[in-house]
Amino acid sequence: MAVSKRFLSLLNFQLAQFADRGDVASLVVYVTEPGPAETPSLIPVGQWPSAGRVLPPLAADSPLRAPEERRRWLPLRHQGVLLGALQVETSHLPWPEPLRQRLQAVALCLTEGLCLDLEHTRLQHQLQHQQEQLQVLLHQLRNPLAALRTFGQLLLRRLEGDSRNRGLVEGLLQEERQLSRYVDAIDQLESGEAAFSAADMVMPLLLPPSLGGGRQQNLAALVQPLLQRAAATAALQSRAWLPPAQLLDWQGDAESVAEILANLLENAFRYSQPGAAVGLHVAPCPEGGWALTVWDSGEPIAACERERIFEPGERGSSGADLPGTGLGLALGRQLARRLGGDLCLEACPRQVDGSLPECGNAFRLSLPPAETARSTADR
Predict the structure, then answer these.
(1) 3-state SS class at 45
(2) SS3 of residue 55 by DSSP
(3) What is the pLDDT of residues 61-88, one digit of tens each?
(4) pLDDT in tens, 92-134
(5) Between 225 and which of 174, 213, 283, 325 could a Cys-Cys bridge form, CB atoms 3.0 to 4.6 Å apart?
(6) What is the model's pTM?
(7) Which CATH number fits domain 5-124: 3.30.450.40, 3.40.50.620, 3.40.50.2000, 3.40.50.300?
(8) End-to-end CA gap in the chain
(9) Residues in a beta bridge with 346
(10) For the chain, what are the domain ranges?
(11) Rounded distance between C-alpha atoms, residue 266 and residue 259, angstroms
C-alpha cells in the first residue's frame, strides 16, 4: 500500500509527541501489502526515533511479528480490514494508563489517515479512468458531427431555391455548430485550461468563456434556429406552438441569452402535459429593456416550488420522474443576472399578457436595454 506525503507528515507528527516519554524505546508504523499467503506482509513507512535504523519488511512468517516481553503491536484496522500496525517497544509492561490511552489515540488517528489515503487513491484512479473514457468519447463524437455537417451542407446545396425546407437544414447545421462548441468546451476542460475566471468562481454554474464569452451579437440571428426547433418539436408532439409576433432587435451577449431560451423551451416541451400549448412572448419592459417569456398552458408549478426550482439540483415534483439534472434554471438565472437582467416564474401566463392562457407557467427573462447590456458584458 503506497502512502502519500501528507500521511507521512501526519505519521511523523504523531510519533514525535512521544519524545517526552522515557519509557518508550521505539515506535514503528507498518502498512499492509498483499502477498501470496493469506496474512499480508508489513512494510515499514515510519519510525521513531528515526536515526540509525533501516527496517526490513516483515513477511507473514517473520518472527519479529510475534509479541515479545517489551514489544507489543497495535493493529490499524478498519471495518475488519487490517490496514497496518503500530509496533511499540517500551522499557516495562504493563503500560501506564496515560501511555496506553495516548498510543490508542495515535493508532486510531493513523487508521483514519490510512482510510483517507486509500479513498483518495481510489478516487484518483476513478477520475483518471473517467477522463480517459471521456477523451475516447469526445474523439468518437467528432466523427458523426463532422459527417452531419458534411451531409447538411450537401443537402443545403440541393435545396437551393426551396425556401420551405432550406430553413430546416440551416437549423440542423446551426445545431451541429452548437454541439461542436460544447465538445470543444469539454475538451478544453480535459486539457487543463481554466473554464472560469477567478471572478466567476463564486458562480460556478456560469458557462465557460468558449460558450458564453460576452461577444456582442444580434439576438435575432441566434433566436431564429430556436424558433425553428420549437416549431418542429411542437409538430412532432401534436401541440400548439405560438411564436413571438416579432424578433427582438437586441445587441449584447446574445449567446448567453440563447442558452437561457434554449433551456426554457426545452423545459416547456419536456415537462408540460401532452397537448399543452407552448409559446414565446416578447414585449418591452415598462422600466426599459425587454421581457422574453416562455410559457405553457400545462399544470402550474406549485407555489411552494416556484423559487426552489431555481436552486442548483432542485426540480419540481411534476418532473421528478423525468430525465434531467435540475441545473438549467439555476444556470439561466445566473446568466440573466450577469447580463443585468433576471429570470423569474410568473404566477400565470395571463399575468404577462392578457392574450395568453390563464392557467399554466410563464418563465420571464428580462433583459436590460442594449447599451446597458453591452456595458455589463464588458465588465
Answers:
(1) strand
(2) coil
(3) 677 666 677 889 999 999 989 999 999 9
(4) 888 999 999 999 999 999 999 999 999 999 999 999 898 888 8
(5) 174
(6) 0.59
(7) 3.30.450.40
(8) 51
(9) 362
(10) 5-124, 235-378
(11) 11
Q: In this structure, what C-alpha cell is assigned to residue 224? A: 431564429
Would you tell me how many other CB atoms lie within 10 Å of the CB of residue 362?
Answer: 24
Instruction: Give how far the C-alpha of residue 309 lies from the chain's centroid of Cα atoms, to the nearest Å.
Output: 18
Containing 254, the helix (H) or strand (E) segment is helix 254-271
Q: How many CB atoms lie within 10 A of CB 176?
A: 20
- What's the chain's length in residues? 379
Residues 2 and 121: their CA atoms lie apart, in Å, by 9
Q: Provide the residue type at 378 as one letter.
A: D
CA distance 191 to 183: 12
Give strand ranges (E) for 34-70.
41-48
Tell me what percent of the chain is helix, strand and coil, each rounded to the nearest 5. Answer: 50, 20, 30
C-beta atoms surrounding 350 within 10 Å = 16
Name the pairing type of β-strands 278-284 and 290-296: antiparallel
Which fold would CATH assign to domain 235-378?
Heat Shock Protein 90 (3.30.565)
Question: What single letter denotes the amino acid at residue 11?
Answer: L
Strand-pair category, 24-33 with 41-48:
antiparallel
Cα separation, 78 vs 107, whole angstroms: 11
- Type of residue at 334: Q
Strands 278-284, 241-242: pairing kind: parallel
What does the pLDDT look like over 212-236, one tens digit per residue?
556 688 888 888 888 888 898 898 8
Beta bridge pairs of residue 76: 84
DSSP 77: E
Tell me the three cell numbers of residue 136. Answer: 475516447
